[in-house]
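Colleagues,

For the teaching module next term, I've prepared a clean inverse folding example: a structure given as tokens, and then the sequence designed for it. I'd like students to try predicting residues themselves before seeing the answer, so please don't circulate the second half yet.
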């Protein structure tokens, strides 16, 4: 009987954790990925950049990470893994593109909104305004993930604390020129 009660309590605890992770009171419009979307949800070989006087200027992953650290006041030793471009549709049917990454230790998730340069099939995207980070010490592998749509920022729910930081950039050329001038991304 004791084993049955322990198993039942374990099941109830597990169900409670799953329920807590499915709730998100801060969410307004989420990005839902479609597996049948063209291009696919994770876009391979994408180039990210910004516009400078009508010219597309590609950036390196190191410069992107430097930008995230600079704009979101992240610690200098924050390293990101699995940075990727995602294409999807919002609940209203709008096409949406973002670049996302998670820190190596799993405590920081960052997403920046992208806009295709030309046709999305050419896999060239420019930074388009909103950047969102979600930081946690309690949800290291799931939850507290950053999602951005336009200038809105959301964090997926988490069973622990989840700190949201968001920013909207209006002049990427100036921001990236500054970062390059101080040696970021080299």
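(Answer key — instructors only)
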């Amino acid at each position: 009987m004791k084993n049955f009660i322990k198993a039942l309590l374990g099941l109830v605890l597990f169900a409670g954790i799953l329920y807590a992770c499915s709730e998100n009171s801060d969410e307004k419009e989420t990005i839902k990925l479609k597996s049948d979307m063209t291009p696919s949800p994770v876009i391979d070989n994408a180039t990210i950049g910004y516009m400078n006087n009508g010219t597309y200027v590609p950036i390196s992953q190191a410069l992107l990470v430097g930008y995230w650290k600079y704009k979101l006041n992240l610690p200098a030793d924050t390293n990101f893994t699995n940075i990727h471009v995602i294409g999807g549709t919002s609940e209203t049917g709008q096409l949406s593109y973002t670049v996302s990454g998670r820190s190596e230790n799993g405590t920081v998730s960052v997403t920046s909104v992208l806009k295709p340069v030309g046709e999305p099939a050419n896999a060239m995207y420019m930074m388009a305004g909103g950047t969102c980070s979600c930081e946690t010490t309690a949800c290291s592998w799931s939850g507290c993930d950053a999602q951005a749509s336009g200038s809105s920022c959301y964090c997926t729910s988490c069973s622990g604390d989840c700190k949201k930081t968001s920013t909207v950039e209006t002049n990427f050329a100036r921001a990236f020129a500054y970062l390059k001038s101080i040696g970021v991304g080299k």
